[in-house]
Structure formats: C-alpha cells, structure tokens
Design brief:
CATH class of the largest domain: Mainly Beta
GO molecular function: hydrolase activity, acting on glycosyl bonds
Keywords: Carbohydrate metabolism, Glycosidase, Hydrolase, Polysaccharide degradation, Signal
Strand content: 25-35%
Radius of gyration: 28 Å
Strand order of the largest sheet: 26-30-29-28-27
Shape: elongated
Largest sheet: 5 strands, mixed
Family: Belongs to the glycosyl hydrolase 74 family.
Helix content: under 10%
Protein name: BNR/Asp-box repeat protein
C-alpha cells in the first residue's frame, strides 16, 4: 500500500458513510403494527354475490368501494382480498368471475369510475395474490348501473376464453386468461364513448355464455349480451362464438341482469333505469336456447303497482326450472324476493313470509325501525350445491337463508362475518368513556364500547344519516356533541345533537333560523360544532358563528370569529378556544369561553394557512389541541405540520420530510397519513414530529382510501384509521398484543 493510498482511504470511507447516512435512499423506519377492523358488520352496498360452481362452500362478494371478499368455509368468515392494494380505483369492483372448472382461479374487473384507472385482476390462488392487467376501457364500479351484470364471463368449455361487457366501449374478448384483450368488432354496439363528467353509461350490462353450446375443450358457440344504453335493441345473441350477432326481441327496457341455467335457458331482469336508485319499473323474461322469449314477471308484483325493477336474478343448477328474482326501488310496498319452481309460470312472494334476526349486527336498526327486507337489492344467488341456500345483498348488509322452501316461514340472518364495507367520515377518541366515537356516511355513527362487536345505534334525536363532526369535552368526556346531514328529505328541526351520558342518549340542538327558508343554513349539516373542556360552552361554525353556554337553549353571535370557521377547544382549560382565520392568515384565540376571539401574533407559521385536501362539511380540522395539556396545538398548513406549546404564540415545524394529508393526536404521540421517502402510508411520531416511523405495511393499504386518523388519549400507541370503503381500523404496536 502506497503512502497516497493510505492518505485517501479514510477520507473516501468518511465520504461514503456520509452519503449512506444522509442520502435520500435510506428507507423510512417501519414499526410493526397489528390492524383490526372496528366491527360493524358489512354496512355498505354490495352489488353482487357469486357462488363458485367448482367447489361447495366457495363464494365471492363484490362491493362498490371496498374491494372484494371470499367466503372461507373452514374459517366461517369472509376474507378481504384487496387489503394490500394501494390503487384507490381498484377498490370499486365492476364484476367478478370465479373459474367454473378450477376453484383456485378467479377474475375481477376493477375500476371506480370513468375518470380513474381500470384493470382486469387475475388470481390463481383464490385472490391471495393478484396479477393486474390495466385495460383501455373505463369501468364504473361505484357508478350508477353497478348492480348490473355480470359483465365478466368465462367460457365454461374453454376457460382461458373470457368476455367483458364494457360501459363505454362495447364488447371485449381475451383468449389468454385475461392477460390481453381485444375489442369484438363484430358486436353491433360499439359503445357511446367515454362519458362527460358526471354522466354514466350502462353499456354492455351482462354477458352470459351457454355451456350446452360447446364441449370439453371446444368453445361455447352461444353467447348472450344485454344492453343498458338507449336504443331499440337491448339483447343480442351469437351462435358462432361471437363472430356474428343478432337482435333478440324483448321489452322496451334496459337488459340489466342476465343468468343462464344448466339447460341453456337465459333469464333476464329488465329495468327502466340504471339504478340502484330512480328505477320506475321493470320486467322478468325467459329465453329458451332457440331465442324465443316470454314475459314471466311475477303477477303479484304487477298487482301492487309494477313499481321498481328486477336487478336480482338467480337460478339453481341442481333444480332446473327453479329461479329467484328480487326487486329494487319498490318503495311503497317494500322490496321483496319471488321464487318459482316451474320455469316462471307461478311465483311465490318470499318477502311476506320472511323473518330477519339482526342480533349479531344490531347497527341495522340505525334508522329507528325494525330491520326490513332491505333496499338496493341487486345481488341474488342460489348455492349451486344446495338449492335451499340463498343469499342476497342490500345497501347495508348480506342476508342468507339455509332453508328457502316453497312454503312456511323463511329465516334470514346477516351473512357478514369479516365484511366491513363502510365510508367513515370522522372519528373521535375521548379522554374517558367509550374508546371510540364514529361518524359514518349513510349509517349515522356509533358509540363503540367494544371495538370487536357490532354497535347498537344510539345516534338519534336527531337521526342524521351522515355524521360530519364529533367533539367531546376534555375534562368531562361524557359530554359529546355532533353535527350531521340527512340524505333523505325528512322533516327535522335540528342537524346537531348533544349527549351528557357518553352518547347513549341525545337532545336536539336547535339553532336560530338562518338563511333562505327553503334551505335553512342551520339545518343543512355543513357546520361543525365544538364543546369546551368542561362541557359548558358550545360553538357552531354557522355563517354567523354562534355560542351557547346553557346547553343550547340560548344562542348569541361570537365576536371576532369569521363565519364558517371551526372553533377548537383547549381540552384542559374551559375558557380557551382557538380558530384559524384562513382569509387573513391568522390564528385566533378566545379566553372568555367563546364570547369573543382575537388574533394572535404567532411566530413560525407560513402565510398560507389554507387547509389541505377535501373542503366542505366532511373535511377534518386542520387545527387540533392536545388532549393532555393546555396550550399545545398542532396545525396543518398545506402538507406541513406545525406544533405550538405556548398557546399559539410560537410554532415549530413538526413534519421533518413527511408530506401530511391527515393527522390526529394520541397519548404522547401524533399520527399522520402522508408520504415520506416516496412511500405513502400511515405514520407515527413519538418525539413531537422530529422523526416519523411507518406503521402500516404493504399488506395493509386498503386502496389508500383514507378519510380520517385519530390517536387514543388513554392508550399509548393506539391509532384509529377511517377509510372510504373498508370501514374503520384500530392499530396497536405488534409487540403490545
């Protein structure tokens, strides 16, 4: 070794160490977490359920925004199949197709709407691992018409051959098990093209392949395709593997749902609209293999006004001639299910002799009435191995019966173990009482005394379908306030409620009337409500901010607080509230329990304090106060996070390199959804934001559809995460369990 080599060697080593230590290539630290769904028990719209014809006890469920599930008959629960998926659009499932010969193979068409990516997903191990093939045609897994189908069909005689009916671009075909796709140019409906914003096409609503028209290893020759776009023809048939097509006569309605039985008979549910809402009427038709059709619509449905349509259609391979249909949008008499065992000549109304046991999912009573037969019923299936085992999906659950017979009562129970398919708007973990309070879309919200049991509904008086904001009193956590909106036009005098017993019972908070009498600003649910640390003061961010110090009996305008500006209570000092005046770029403080606010001369904040992300009534607050100490504030501005420990006089950066989307506070820690080192995920800091560690992993991504994150003020390390479609989760450090 020369003297020169000895001289440069330690210098080079030092430089290499510096590059390794400080370079951006170092991956973020990961802390293993254990993630568990906060149990509700389904909760959202599942457009269809499909049994595997290849194996008894195997079924798949597709949802409109929460991905797909597989029923594991050994574990007796539904298993989510896309928790490792990080592409939001792929959580909207347009269609699902289990291989009719090999029970391990399953295909999915995934794409949320016309403006987002779409793909065909293929699995050879029942959905544990997916191969993703992006496709040029758009889908609408969460658009109108998502109850149609199935659009994806496998030729049972040559299972590498698939067809897909697209919404906007006609019929497509794959001859290599979904790896590549080409358009069927001979199909007479080329499609209407990708729609303009907020416009939906029904397109090719279903594809049904006749297994009797082919043989083992020989492609099936007869293919049916239903059309749900305007036009004179809504059903086509090919008898030469799709080379040529002919129109088939039928009603002047959209061909929405089509299934083919073991004899080659096609059953079609027709609808006047795309649904799942706004359908006026429909029909059921039966087509023999030669193409002759007849109307077999249940007579009792016609006798009750012919309201709604038939998006549920199912047949039994074990009992030819046995068919079931279900209605959607039959509001006056309620949706129901009809069963025929003689090829549709006569029908029996099953709904009138049905009973439902919802004791394991009591949340279904959330509207203050008993569980009815259900709404938005578009998924209906008969077990191919047991004609008495029938399941149907609704806008909130999946029901199943193991004894659907021609006469006698029928008992239905929710078939939902493992399914959590809800849209979470907001979460709060109070300093006492139940560990979690939730605000959901469509389901109001709940007090979760036990995170592993479906909650009983208590968010009443008023009942609001969507809970948009929740707050609790830091020193008196049994005091809870909430605001929300109602998606149905029902009479009401309040859009806010107060509870003094931890959310078990409520009283309405009635505000002074504001705005146009036809659209009362005090009733629209847009405005968050806050409560002081002792529960005595409430402030509402209406267009003219209001304060009450007597439980909501009397209200007065707040001085110095701009309208539509959320107030945030100090969780330990009842006199103090904070707010962000975005227009002037100022932090405001009240030291007189909300009577008045004044600007602070804060140091360390950027000039732009506009909150990041979604705006409007469902947006999370960009300002939070620590649950355990006075004067500690956290503020999000853009993708940056700032912290103050002196009541907002000075702020320091608490973000490091993390680009924050959402954040929440817990005991001795802060949690965030954001991106660090090119990795988007869920993060935790235990040192006031100086450093961050990742706490999710590549098996827990949930489509990246995050809505809210909140820590637990009583349990260190505990975090709650609300998603848009996969429900709410609670996470704990893995070593703590």
């Amino acid at each position: 070794m020369t003297r020169m080599t000895r001289f440069w060697r330690p210098i080079i080593a030092t430089l290499l160490m510096a590059l390794t230590t400080h370079g951006s290539a170092r991956p973020p630290e990961v802390v293993p977490y254990h993630w568990t769904n906060v149990k509700v028990g389904a909760g959202g719209y599942a457009p269809n359920i499909v049994f595997s014809p290849a194996e008894r006890g195997l079924a798949y469920l597709r949802t409109d925004m929460g991905g797909a599930y597989r029923w594991d008959d050994t574990a007796r629960r539904w298993l989510p199949l896309q928790d490792g998926n990080a592409t939001p659009s792929y959580m909207g499932i347009e269609s699902i197709a289990p291989d009719p010969r090999d029970p391990d193979i399953v295909y999915m068409a995934a794409g949320m709407n016309a403006g987002q990516p779409a793909a065909i997903l293929r699995s050879a191990d029942r959905g544990r691992v997916w191969r993703v093939t992006p496709v040029p045609f758009a889908m609408g897994g969460n658009e109108d018409g998502r109850g149609f189908g199935e659009r994806l069909a496998i030729d049972p005689n040559q299972t590498r051959r698939l067809f897909f009916g697209s919404r906007h671009d006609g019929l497509w075909r794959s001859d290599d098990a979904g790896a590549t796709w080409s358009k069927v140019t001979a199909f007479p409906v080329a499609g209407l093209g990708r729609p303009a914003w907020r416009r939906t096409h029904g397109g090719v609503a279903f594809v049904a392949i006749d297994p009797m028209s082919g043989g083992a290893g020989k492609p099936s020759r007869r293919i049916w395709a239903g059309i749900a776009d305007p036009g004179a023809v809504h059903l086509y048939r090919s008898d030469d593997e799709g080379e040529t097509w002919g129109a088939v006569a039928g009603p002047a309605l959209l061909a929405a749902k089509g299934v083919i039985d073991s004899r080659g008979v096609l059953w079609v549910g027709y609808a006047s609209g795309l649904g799942p809402s706004g359908i006026a009427t429909g029909a059921v038709w039966r087509y023999d293999p030669g193409g002759r059709g007849r109307d077999v619509t249940p007579r009792t449905w016609r006798q009750t006004g012919a309201e709604g349509a038939f998006l549920g259609v199912a047949v039994s391979p074990m009992a030819p001639g046995t068919v079931a249909v279900s209605t959607v949008d039959r509001y006056r008499h309620g949706d129901s299910l009809w069963l025929s065992r003689d090829d549709g000549r006569t029908w029996n109304d099953v709904g009138t002799r049905s009973r439902r046991d919802v004791s394991k999912t009591p949340f279904l009573l959330h509207e203050g009435k008993g569980a009815d037969f259900g709404h938005w019923i578009s998924g209906l299936a008969i077990d191919p191995f047991d004609p008495t085992h029938v399941a149907y999906t609704t806008g909130a659950t999946v029901y199943a019966s193991r004894a659907l017979r021609a006469t006698g009562g029928v008992d239905w129970v929710p078939w939902t173990e493992g399914i959590e398919q809800t849209a979470v708007i907001t979460l709060a973990s109070p300093t006492g009482g139940a560990p979690l309070l939730s605000g959901f879309g469509d389901l109001a919200g709940f007090v979760h005394d036990d995170l592993d049991r479906s909650p009983r509904p208590t968010f009443v008086n008023p009942y609001m379908s969507n809970t948009n904001s929740i707050d609790y009193a830091g020193l008196a956590p049994n005091v809870i306030v909430r605001s929300g909106s109602l998606y149905l036009d029902r009479p009401r005098q309040a859009s806010m409620g107060r509870s003094d017993d931890g959310g078990r019972t409520w009283t309405e908070i009635v505000l002074p009337p504001m705005g146009n009498p036809a659209r009362r600003e005090d009733l629209n649910g847009d405005w968050p409500i806050s409560v002081s640390a002792d529960g005595a003061t409430m402030i509402v961010a209406t267009p003219v901010a209001q304060v009450s110090r007597d439980g909501g009996r009397l209200w007065s305008a707040v001085r110095g607080l701009p309208g539509k500006t959320r107030a945030v209570a100090d969780k330990r000092d009842p006199r103090i509230f904070y707010a962000v005046d975005v227009g002037r770029g100022k932090l405001l403080v009240s030291r007189d329990a909300g009577v008045s606010f004044a600007p602070l001369a804060s140091h360390g904040l950027p000039a732009d304090l506009a909150p990041l992300g979604r705006q409007g009534r469902e947006a999370q607050s960009s300002l939070l106060s620590a649950p355990d100490r006075t004067g500690t504030l956290w503020l999000q501005a853009g993708t940056q996070l700032f912290r103050s420990s002196d009541g907002g006089i000075s702020f320091v950066s608490a973000t490091d390199r993390l680009k924050v989307e959402l954040f929440g506070l817990g005991r001795n820690g802060v949690f965030a959804v954001g991106t660090l080192g090119g990795v988007r995920g869920v993060w935790r800091s235990m040192d006031a934001g100086r450093s961050w560690v990742r706490i999710d992993d590549d098996s827990h991504r949930w489509g990246g559809r995050y809505r809210v994150v909140s820590g637990d003020p009583r349990r260190e390390g505990r975090v709650y995460l609300g998603t848009d479609g996969r429900g709410a989760f609670y996470g704990d450090p893995a070593k703590a369990r």
